[in-house]
Design goal:
D-Maltodextrin-Binding Protein, domain 2; alpha/beta; 308 residues; two-stranded antiparallel sheet
Length: 308
Amino acid sequence: MEIRQLRYFIKICELGSMGRAAIELDVVTSALSQQISRLESELSTRLLQRSPAGVIPTEAGTAFMHHAQLALRNIDNAAQAARHARLSGQVSVGFAPTTASVLGLPFQKVMRERYPDIRLHLVEALSGNLAAMLNARRIDLGIIFKADAHRHWHTSPLLEEKLFLVAAPTVKGLAPAERIFLSELADVPLVLPSAPHGLRALVDAGFMRANVIPDIALEVDGLAMLMDTVMDGQLASIQPGAATTRHAGAGLLHMEIADEGMARQNLLASLSDEDLSPAGLAARVVIAEVVRTTVRDGRWKGAQLYQP
């Protein structure tokens, strides 16, 4: 006996017509009739009979209908309870500093609203450190920048971020423009992360392709201190747009790096589906939703959603 057979039977009894029930249920009349015949065969009794007024239940059909209605109410109540049951547990999520600046707070808010019983543990660290933490199972999921993911991970591309020259208008040797090539930055003093940083490797490769030796005046491993240095007005930096989220009203120049290859991919990486808890699965869905909303609302500068 199938749930749909119960629904079909009750609808026929309510409407008193096989044809009208078929229209409302969006099935062909012959299929509806076949399902009722199967139900009657399984019960070894006649449930419906034709009359001048249409189709009416037999005495057995009337008795069956009352119990079928009760069964469907219980099934619907069970489904409703499952949908509204509060997930609980703990989930650890890792973001790089630039990602955290644009995504951290919106993600927290949605998780609190949707899953108030899930205890959220947020970690801010460099992408490479996040990958190591994921391998060590110290976090459940996170957004990373390298595509060479561990084979036991679940990964999906989220977006691509353009890189920008970020500077105060007072930086020497810099003329404001919408886009700028790395070949134009040979005399612009820069503050950048040090060599182990993934962004630094991307920038160094770009300068090498452009055959330019950059003027790296200072190395800072920490987004807050690096942006304080940029705000001081003497040095520029090359950063994704998300790095300046907390300085949106500071009057900084944002010039898109025009060279090819000067963008980084953001991947959502997590433990495998088999290892990820229900709380982790829920958080993974929320991250993807918040990313899409943030990008589409224009709150993630230079970000473009991944298009399969």
